[in-house]
Amino acid sequence: MPAAERREQILKKAFEFFSEYGLTAQTRALAESCGVSQRLLYSIFPNKSALINAVYETAIAGVFKAVWFVQLQDRSKPIEQRLKDFYCEYYDTVLTRSWMRLFLYASLAEVEMAPTYIGSIIKHLLDIVMKEALDEAGLQSPIDQAQAQEICWILHGAVSHLAIRRHIYRDQTALNVEKVIELQIKSFLAGLKSILPANAT
């Protein structure tokens, strides 16, 4: 098997393996599940840390689509529609059972996966969401950027926790995911008006 194909195969299996057994699982067991020797595994990835970093780049950060940033700033559509389109696709594409499990395992193991993802992707996302939501609502942005991001976490955190409830807690309700996300977006947008002042006219 070509080296690139073998590497891709191992990364895919490692994502599934670590999401089921956590990042403390032994690479020997991972190698067995991949059908390769541990020696071959380490010939591709020099150590476990390098393997975990590669899994992060491909399976955690790699599934986030850069085009989402562009679509969220397309003012030809109402912000409510833009947020719904984004968060429904984000839920289906990113917040899968395996993704959530690995993300949580990494956080518990104090691996830098979660802080890196939040710092490099989510904080930029929250800045865009806040800017676009405030522009349409005619509201002033908080002077403190940290406060602005915390306000946006109200929505992003709600969607993320919905994935935790459905995938981790196995909480099933009569409402489908799209409807719940729609309710969360409406609540977030309505709440902005009670938190922030209107722009001066």
Using only C-alpha atoms, the radius of gyration works out to 20 Å
User: How many structural domains does the protein architecture include?
Assistant: 2
Number of helices: 10
Oligomer: single chain
Summarize model confidence as the mean pLDDT. Answer: 93
Q: Order of SSEs, N→C?
A: HHHHHHHHHH
Strand content: under 5%
Task: Note down, in words, how this protein is organized.
Helices cover 74% and strands 0% of the residues. The chain has 201 residues and is mainly alpha-helical. The protein folds into two domains: 57 residues, Arc Repressor Mutant, subunit A (Orthogonal Bundle), CATH 1.10.10; 132 residues, Tetracycline Repressor, domain 2, CATH 1.10.357. It is elongated and about 65 Å long. The chain starts with a helix and ends in a 6-residue tail after the last helix.
Summarize the structure.
The protein has helices spanning 3-21, 27-34, 38-44, 48-60, 67-72, 79-93, 97-108, 113-137, 145-168, 177-195. With 201 residues, the chain is mainly α.
Brief descriptors of the model:
Tetracycline Repressor, domain 2, mainly alpha, Arc Repressor Mutant, subunit A, 74% helix
Topology record:
Elements: H1 3-21, H2 27-34, H3 38-44, H4 48-60, H5 67-72, H6 79-93, H7 97-108, H8 113-137, H9 145-168, H10 177-195
Helix pairs in contact: 1-2, 1-4, 1-7, 6-10, 8-9, 9-10
